[in-house]
Design goal:
heterotrimer, A mainly alpha, B alpha/beta, C alpha+beta, B: 11 strands, about 10% strand, C: alpha+beta, eleven-stranded mixed beta sheet, 18 strands, about 40% helix, elongated, binds magnesium ion, binds zinc ion
Chain lengths: ~100, ~500, ~500
């Protein structure tokens, strides 16, 4: 697998990362190098092996449906990069 | 007795015997930090006043004979990815430069309840991504044994601070070796507990299925004491395991009825292992044998697959964990996200451009690289080939350990393939940096505990660590084995000379 | 519009995607509340804000409610289920991934009943594809200055997603099905299903299978309709869309092979669907297992326990009301569709009095009307089933006539007093004395010679005249006469007089 700069640009859009043109070239080279390296995994025979996605194989962990206090609004909005008195603000979502 | 030279246990002894007060001890650490942190950059933020005030209050309580927690008066430095209510928690990233969580991490709550003194924020690789502490937005932390060299990473500030006696102990996090590798490079003890042993609530996630918080110290007893405080299940972390927390300190010197069985994997001695590191590991094996342990060669056939598997699983999870930093609810937002090209103007709404510009400005290159790598390996058409394949190999790696631990109690090996390298030496070659995790990443993939402890010095006087690994939740065995080596050697007593 | 002709020309193919908020105290993964309509951002906590370091922990009640729903619809419960992350960037999704279920939902299959329609259509059932659990998103509100507000009160509320097969053939059945779903979920205590408040949301996929003259069938492109905020909107939007697609096909002849699925939004005030802006990038959700949540294994005992908790569901209850009590389908439906409390109330009164039809009448005409007028719930009514049964039995025993009974019931509702004391205080009671009543009847006829003239002259209908006379008798007795007896005596006297 060899990713073209266009492939990497697509990945960057999917990941919401704006890349400068010179960065795109650098990242394309580096990501290809890493991808080629990790492709050695394809050689491992994994037939019949279940994927292991979790750090620990426990099951059925639940919490009780008990209500706890909400954050005061000022604290909820406390780290907002842009806000008004009641909400987070983002550039309008155009319809 | 000088509190600076003391281990955590020594410090507590000093408090109990009245040799020095907490205020005197903290004052000594403060002066030490003020004298040397400028060079080492281990702490990125440090306010002595509250620490000294807390020390005075603990001294008062001690004088009045009030009950005190197990870490009363012990300064502990905290990696900058562990949340403290109302205090900056930045992950050494521009993205979170002004972020203040409205809650404490569970480990912080437990440390506060134990009357530990939280001392400053530790430098680290940005979002814990790196093995040299060079990706920090605050600049690299440096190795007290040679400030031209890296302390390792990502918990480089933690290892550097403990080695430099800025604090007797510190908390770091380990996703692929981020506690053990810097501990090895800085000549201190660093413990990565079993996945699920310590709550991750309040640890800013890098790779959720791999991350664990763990302690640093000068000796095994130090990390045992801290582990006893921070371990245990937490209703806020569904992956923390409901299991009693033993007295780890008592366990380290406990007598056992049969000799310790040590295994060394033949796969460890491969290309890339520095001969001096190899010599230290082989010597450690002889030490263990001399202490009555049996040492046998074992095989972990998939050792070579750990790094490729790790550098798929960890970036995949990271790409999702770090998606939340988009300039909306918290974190950096770009001021200028005007379209730069006609295509951007036509295709990308302002909202999308805002997110893209904020993330581009907020993240450094290593984080950006891993997010893209992780996004790619999960994307449509590639997930099975890369991500799912890596998860299957991950199970094979864990099966290797399960098989090995049928015959041995602990596995001995190198922590880092090389001693401390120069700042700037590897930073331009991402893959070379990734290969530094070759001996540590597999424990995270398998969820088992690992510890690095001082095992020797190189000819040029740099520390070399050895790593021990044990089955999941066998921290008692792991610490006991480490203590066995420590009792027979004096590497843990070596301290760097600070100019 | 000739509906008959149209339905011969094409089949309407409808499938639904339904989201239902579960009735829990706290959110799916954290403790803050789930109320609707609070001021923006006053119902959040660190987890539902997606703050760095927070972790989800599954709400056990939400999972149980989900299982109950699946069991009620005869779905297959997965013995092993897990959580996945669905990754996409949107400001109402603070983590920029939604915790959902991808390849192993907790439930597959099952069916929803289609209620029979008044026009004779409907009946049968539609198949369910799957039901899964996920977290709700926050809300975006348009704000001034080219900005949108983000309100995260709703973020993290437990949400059930029900996906049906494209088995519906009529917009009225889509509505009927949804209403039946709401009724069932309310019976189960799973959700309040208020479409206006968004606790029940429905998107519909619709297209047409058009029969052409040469006997082949052509499928039109599938359209997904969103923004339907009421049951009637669902029906109207589907009708509109059917019409629109047919006209469009006649115009451009495009089929399912020529066009991608289109998303259109229903505009209720305009009564039309409009194209919705497509996302700027093709969706690639990069699903992967949520590492912060552990899988769930469901065993037989768990399923059996929940099955026991499920009471009689609406469909079964309607059938029983018809078979056990001899109610008409109409009456059975009215009592059942009011909700479980009304149906339970009826059950109790019908059993206590042995008079199911009377019980049905009293409840429909008096009890339901007065709770509607007072805008209260049945539980807030002062008249319990025993009290109403007592009253009905008194009427049956002719202690009161029906009109008196209604007055007494009205007072019982107002005061909470028992029938007995209201009857005593109010001087209610029937004049059952034959001779006394015969005298009143004779008096009344004598006093109204005009009435007899009308009868004799045939100017007015005899029933109207007799009814008027009956009313006069009731008036004279202040409504206390036994109405049946009045009729009998009136007839007797009139025939004596030759009428
Ligand atoms: Mg978002
Ligand atoms: Zn959904």
């Amino acid at each position: 697998m060899n990713l073209s700069p266009e492939d990497v640009a697509k990945v960057a859009l999917l990941a919401r990362l704006r890349l400068e043109p010179n960065e795109l070239a650098t990242y394309t080279g580096q990501i290809n190098e890493i991808v080629h390296y990790v492709e050695q995994l394809q050689q491992v025979d994994v037939s019949g092996v279940e994927p292991l996605a979790h750090g620990v194989e426990v099951r059925n962990v639940f919490r009780e449906d008990r209500r706890t206090d909400s954050l005061p609004r000022e604290e909820a909005l406390g780290n907002a990069p842009k806000r008004n008195h009641e909400a987070f603000l983002v550039p309008a979502v155009l319809q | 007795m000088d509190p600076l030279g003391a281990t955590l246990s020594g410090l507590l002894d000093g408090y109990h015997s009245g040799t020095f007060s907490s205020e005197e001890a903290v004052g000594a650490f403060v002066r030490r930090i003020e004298a040397h942190n400028g060079r080492l950059n281990a702490l990125i933020d440090f306010d002595p006043a509250p620490a000294l005030e807390q020390a005075r209050s603990i001294d008062d309580r001690r004088r009045r004979g009030e009950p005190l927690g197990p870490l009363a008066g012990v300064p502990i430095a905290i990696k900058d990815n562990i949340c403290r209510r109302g205090e900056l928690t930045t992950c050494c990233s521009r993205m979170l430069a002004s972020y203040r969580p409205p809650f404490d991490a569970t480990v912080i709550r437990r440390l506060r309840a134990a009357d530990a003194i939280l001392l400053g924020r530790l430098n680290m690789d940005e979002f814990a991504m790196g093995s040299s502490n060079e990706t920090s937005v605050y600049g690299p932390a440096r190795n007290p044994w040679d400030p031209d060299r890296s302390p390792g990473g990502s918990s480089g500030g933690a290892a550097s601070a403990v080695a430099a006696s800025f604090a007797p102990t510190a908390l770091g996090s380990d996703t692929g070796g981020s506690i053990r590798q810097p501990a090895s490079l800085c000549g201190v003890v660093g413990l990565k507990p079993t996945y699920g042993r310590v709550s991750r609530y309040g640890l800013v996630a890098f790779a959720s299925s791999l991350d664990q918080i763990g302690p640093f110290g000068h000796e095994v007893a130090d990390v045992a004491r801290v582990l006893s405080v921070i371990a245990g299940s937490d209703p806020m972390d569904a992956t923390s395991v409901e299991m009693p927390v033993p007295d780890y300190l008592a366990a380290i010197d406990a007598k056992t009825d049969r000799p310790l069985r040590i295994g060394i994997a033949r796969e460890f001695f491969a290309e890339g292992l520095d001969p001096e590191v190899e010599a230290v590991v082989r010597e450690a094996a002889r030490v263990f044998e001399a202490e009555g342990a049996t040492v046998s060669e074992i095989s972990l056939p998939n050792t070579g697959q750990a790094i490729p598997a790790y550098y798929i699983v960890a970036p995949a999870e990271a790409s999702s964990n770090l998606a939340r930093y988009d300039g909306t609810i918290f974190g950096h937002r770009a001021e200028d996200f005007e379209p730069r090209t006609d295509a951007e103007r036509d295709d990308l709404p302002g909202l999308v451009r805002m997110m893209m510009a904020s993330r581009a400005e907020g993240f450094g290159p290593e984080v950006t690289r891993r997010i893209m790598l992780g996004t790619f390996v999960l994307s449509a058409g590639y997930a099975d080939k890369y991500y799912v394949q890596a998860l299957k190999v991950r199970r094979l790696i864990r099966d290797d350990f399960d098989r090995a631990f049928k015959d041995v109690d602990v596995i001995l090996g190198p922590t880092s393939p090389v001693p401390a390298f120069r700042v700037g030496e590897k930073v331009s070659d991402p893959l070379a940096m990734y290969l530094l995790d070759v001996y540590t990443g597999s424990a995270n993939l398998a969820g088992i505990p690992g510890i690095s402890l001082p095992g020797g010095l190189s000819k040029s006087g740099l520390p070399i660590g050895i790593q021990l690994q044990a089955p999941a939740f066998a921290e008692e065995t792991l610490l006991r084995a480490a203590r066995t080596f420590e009792r027979a050697t004096d590497w843990h007593t070596k301290r760097p000379q600070l100019a | 519009m000739d509906v008959e002709k149209k339905t011969m020309e094409y089949d309407i193919i409808i499938g639904l995607e339904i989201h239902v908020q579960l009735q829990t105290e706290s959110k799916m993964f954290s403790g803050c509340g789930t109320e609707f309509g609070l001021p923006p951002n006053t119902q959040t906590d660190p987890v539902s804000l997606g703050l760095p370091g927070t972790l989800p922990v599954m709400n056990g009640k939400a999972f149980n409610l989900a299982l109950k729903t699946a069991l009620a619809f005869g779905a297959e419960i997965a013995r092993f289920t897990k959580w996945d992350r669905k990754n996409y960037y949107y400001p109402d999704l603070p983590k920029n991934y939604q915790i959902s279920q991808y390849d192993l939902p907790f439930s597959t299959g099952g069916s929803l009943p289609i209620p029979e329609r008044k026009d004779g259509g409907g009946g049968g059932s539609i198949r369910l594809t799957r039901i899964h659990l996920e977290e709700d998103t926050g809300k975006m509100i348009h704000a001034a200055g080219g900005m949108s507000e983000v309100d995260l009160n709703r973020a993290g509320v437990p949400l059930l997603e029900v996906v049906t097969e494209p088995d519906l053939r009529d917009p009225a059945d889509a509505r009927g099905c949804l209403e039946e779903l709401r009724l069932t979920l309310r019976y189960l205590g799973v959700s309040d299903c208020e479409m206006q408040e968004g606790s029940l949301r429905c998107d519909a996929n619709v297209n047409l299978h058009i029969r052409t003259d040469d006997g082949t069938t052509i499928a039109t492109p599938i359209v997904e309709i969103k923004n339907m905020n009421s049951f009637s909107a669902v029906e109207k939007a589907l009708h509109y869309e059917v019409e629109r697609q047919f006209e469009k096909w006649k115009d451009d002849g495009l089929t399912i092979k020529d066009a991608h699925k289109e998303t259109r939004g229903w505009s209720d005030p305009e009564g039309i669907t409009k194209p919705q802006r497509q996302k700027e990038t093709a969706a690639d959700y990069r699903y992967f297992p949520e590492p912060d949540l552990v899988p769930v294994e469901v065993d037989d005992a768990w399923i059996a326990r929940l099955r026991d908790e499920i009471g009689e569901l609406p469909m079964a209850r309607r059938a029983r009301f018809e078979s056990e009590y001899g109610l008409s389908a109409y009456d059975a439906n009215v009592l059942v569709e009011q909700g479980q409390d009304v149906a339970d109330y009826f059950d109790a009164v019908a059993r206590e009095t042995g008079e199911a039809k009377l019980a049905s009448n009293w409840i429909q005409q008096d009890i339901l009307r007065s709770i509607k007028e007072k805008k209260i719930g049945l539980g807030d009514l002062h008249v319990d089933p025993a009290a109403l049964s007592d009253l009905i039995k008194r009427v049956k025993r002719k202690e009161l006539n029906t009109n008196q009974g209604r007055e007494v019931l009205a007072r019982m509702i107002d005061t909470g007093q028992a029938a007995e004391s209201i009857i005593a205080e109010g001087g209610y009671g029937l004049i059952g004395d034959r001779d006394a009543l015969a005298a009143v009847v004779a008096e009344t006829i004598d006093a109204n010679p005009k009435a007899l003239e009308d009868l004799a002259g045939g100017k007015k209908k005899p029933d109207a005249v007799k009814g008027w006379l009956r009313g006069q008798v009731m008036k004279k007795t202040q409504g206390k006469a036994d109405p049946e007896l009045v009729v009998e005596l009136l007839e007797a006297r009139l025939s004596e007089l030759g009428h």
